[in-house]
């Protein structure tokens, strides 16, 4: 019988008694008994309500282990209803072997102290985590045992989930560190020219200071490589380094990519919103590559973000504080862009705190031999070969005007290593690699007169034919000139 039912019965018996005793000497005592019961009942209802609103299952026995009370959560967790256990002794319930095993109440009664243990709910075939506490009377006897029961599998699931998440996050962190290393890759910067020596001097001095850097130069001159170097030498080298190519992202997406958005900011916005590149780079460095291609309205927003060092996601209302170092790069002449009204002058000054201008390769030809040798070495290693450049092959590289700068040189060397056997690469192979479509040799920009350019072309043509045909006589036949003419030309070009 449930406690509340029992109380109701006692109350109605008392009321009956009260009525029967009306007018007798005992009338007053009967009325007092009804009042005391009412008070007790009110307290019991409060207690029940509180217990039924607890998340944990509550199970209370007297000092003999007789079950006095269970709350709703206990029934929810164990499937055991009040009618099955109220008024019964825990030892008997356990001996029956139907409802539960491993009673914590029994252990508390024996050990007279708090017990944490796992009990098995036979009824649902599951484990629960139980904590039992003894409640003592003034004489030191146990008058109650109060236990709380929690779904053990749920805890276990949470623990398991936590473990999996910890493992996943460890893996993600390792992957992140790997990708970061790969992305910035510690590629060495090779140079011999005075121009590059000065650039590296600036890189070394400004990297540690947290200043904004603007790197300019034609495509392929090494702007990204220099940006990597600034990051690697900065205090933020272990923090995020996010690169954004402002020209590669469609202008209508660039704003949300850079600054992020809140949920519901626009149709198609992701649930929960999305952090932009600036937020991802927070505490680290952001490289705004091809900044010259950023649309004007976005330049205004960027300027505000750089000035205030905080941003607002699209559709957001809470500003996000930024602690970020900015490196910008472009192959455009920003002063020309300003003149043409395509770039904001105030943004230019904000970015141009430390300008680093990279010269095109044709204006620092001293770097070509070192770069070519290093690329030869690196690609030989990659392809398991041992390829070198012949001295006259190298001369060709030094003369070439390199519109694609170092990227073009690197790609060319890779092609040469792949297509040549180990050993020195002949001048003719370099020539063919530089002229894959059989187009005339691209002359150096320094040989400007027609005579000089024709001379350079004739020289290449003769040397190339000689190399291919293997003898002066055969080359003269192919070129349709006398043998003596060819000998004379060879002498003129310092060739035997
Ligand atoms: N001094 C150098 N030493 C070694 N490698 C270099 C050097 N300069 C550039 N490179 C290599 O040349 C290639 C092009 O360089 P990078 O991408 O940095 O140029 P960029 O100026 O950023 O080009 P773009 O403007 O097209 O993005 C890269 O593979 C880079 O590693």
From TrEMBL:
Protein name in UniProt: HTH-type transcriptional regulatory protein TyrR
Organism from which the protein derives: Intestinimonas butyriciproducens
Residue span, Sigma-54 factor interaction domain: 189-418
Listed GO MF terms: ATP binding; DNA binding
GO biological process, one term: regulation of DNA-templated transcription
Top-level taxon of origin: Bacteria
PROSITE patterns found in the cross-reference section: PAS, SIGMA54_INTERACT_1, SIGMA54_INTERACT_3, SIGMA54_INTERACT_4
Protein keywords: Aromatic hydrocarbons catabolism, ATP-binding, Nucleotide-binding, Transcription, Transcription regulation
Record InterPro entries: AAA+_ATPase, AAA_lid_NorR, Homeodomain-like_sf, HTH_TyrR, P-loop_NTPase, PAS, PAS-like_dom_sf, PAS_fold
SMART domains for this protein: AAA, PAS
Any Pfam family: HTH_50
Keyword hit for 4Fe-4S: no
Residue span, PAS domain: 43-88
């Amino acid at each position: 019988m449930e406690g509340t039912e029992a109380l109701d019965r006692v109350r109605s018996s008392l009321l009956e008694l009260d009525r029967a005793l009306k007018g007798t000497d005992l009338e007053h005592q009967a009325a007092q008994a009804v009042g005391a019961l009412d008070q007790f009942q009110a307290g019991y209802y409060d207690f029940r309500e509180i217990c039924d609103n607890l998340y944990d299952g509550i199970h209370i026995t007297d000092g003999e282990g007789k079950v006095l009370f269970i709350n709703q959560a206990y029934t929810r967790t164990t499937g055991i209803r009040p009618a099955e256990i109220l008024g019964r002794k825990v030892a008997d319930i356990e001996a029956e072997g139907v409802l539960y095993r491993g009673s914590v109440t029994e252990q508390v009664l024996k050990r007279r102290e708090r017990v944490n243990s796992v009990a098995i709910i036979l009824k649902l075939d599951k484990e629960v985590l139980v904590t039992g506490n003894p409640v003592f009377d003034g004489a030191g006897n146990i008058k109650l045992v109060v236990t709380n029961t929690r779904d053990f599998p749920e805890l276990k699931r949470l623990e398991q989930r936590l473990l999996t998440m910890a493992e996943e996050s460890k893996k993600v962190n390792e992957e992140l560190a790997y990708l970061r290393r790969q992305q910035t890759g510690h590629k060495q910067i090779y140079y011999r020219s005075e121009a590059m020596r000065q650039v590296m001097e600036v890189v070394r001095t400004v990297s540690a200071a947290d200043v904004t850097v603007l790197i300019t130069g034609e495509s392929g001159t090494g702007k990204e490589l220099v940006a990597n170097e600034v990051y690697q030498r900065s205090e933020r080298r272990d923090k995020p380094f996010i690169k954004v190519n402002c020209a590669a992202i469609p202008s209508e997406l660039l704003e949300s990519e850079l600054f992020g958005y809140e949920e519901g900011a626009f149709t198609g916005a992701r649930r929960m919103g999305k952090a932009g590149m600036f937020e991802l780079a927070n505490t680290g460095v952001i490289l705004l590559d091809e900044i010259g291609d950023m649309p004007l309205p976005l330049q205004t927003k960027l300027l505000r973000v750089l000035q205030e060092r905080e941003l607002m996601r699209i559709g957001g209302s809470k500003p996000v504080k930024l602690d970020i170092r900015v490196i910008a790069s472009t192959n455009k002449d920003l002063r020309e862009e300003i003149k043409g009204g395509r770039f904001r002058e105030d943004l230019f000054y904000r970015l141009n705190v430390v300008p680093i201008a990279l010269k095109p390769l044709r204006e620092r030809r001293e770097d070509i031999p070192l770069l070519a040798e290093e690329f030869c070495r690196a690609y030989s290693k990659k392809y398991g070969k041992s390829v070198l450049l012949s001295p006259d092959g190298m001369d060709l590289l030094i003369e070439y005007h390199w519109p694609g700068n170092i990227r073009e040189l690197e790609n060319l060397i890779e092609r040469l290593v792949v297509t040549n056997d180990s050993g020195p690469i002949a001048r003719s192979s370099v020539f063919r690699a530089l002229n894959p479509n059989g187009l005339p040799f691209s002359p150096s920009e320094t040989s400007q007169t027609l005579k000089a350019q024709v001379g350079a072309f004739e020289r290449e043509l003769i040397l190339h034919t000689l190399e291919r045909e293997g003898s002066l006589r055969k080359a003269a036949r192919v070129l349709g000139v006398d043998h003596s003419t060819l000998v004379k030309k060879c002498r003129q070009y310092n060739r035997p």
